[in-house]
Amino acid sequence: MRNEFEEIANQWTKHEIFYKKLYEEKKKGKDEYRKYLNSLNRNDLQKCWVNVPDLYDPVDVFSEKIPLFSLDGSVAVSKHARYTPASVHAHDYFEIICVMAGTVTHKIEDNPAETLMAGDICILPDHVYHSIETMDDETIVINIMLRKSKFEETFFDVFLGDNFLADFFWNIMRGEKENRSNSYLFFRTGKDPDVRQCIERMCIESYRKEAYYERIIICELQCMFAYLIRRYGEYYVTEKQNGMRLKILQYIKAHYNDCTLESVAQHFNYSPSYL
To answer: Alpha carbon of 221 to those of 175, 233, 236, 237, 241: distances in Å?
Structure first.
């Protein structure tokens, strides 16, 4: 399976060939780059969903109606094209960014840009603005896109019997609309073979498109979620406030039979009113 995934992931798509050419032309200097841009047919590029921010405004919000999904499909798996120019955008659907090799520059809302490494997984809800940049031959990023309704169904199926974690993670992703800077989940899985194999199988199924491939992708996605949640203590990366909330909720879950507001506050050195 690994060989098949690597063959799929490493082959150059038409978009990647174009983007690498664009990148190389830009390095030649302003005059040469401008001549190259002037030689391009803007309408043809836009029809093919090619992103050229220096030639025309990039898409601001990608809708569920774009050709990404099949007519009745709810999930799409694709490789993020190498050398794609970074542009800030959002989606009407959920996106899961999986770094399989190399490094990625990723920026979410007004947060500082971060470097994502192999094994990093970022789950973005709808309407969170971000940009992603991969400017080398070696980096491989797999994007998993789900319609909102399907993400909720798939995500919560994993949490049957554990509303504690479901509510915690869901509340993060459904943060205040006025401030979506921290409305995402970030897992650093390293070389976890179970998580990686789930992603590889989803990619292969999407590439083959054999009977029931979408159903199999959803099953693999649920498995990936289950592995992430099973090992969230090792893999889940939090900002400070959410990290403390998670510790408090874990303590309450472990001592729900006899804990009180006062005992929990004392354990974490907070006043009851602050807690």
So the answer is: 23, 20, 17, 20, 28
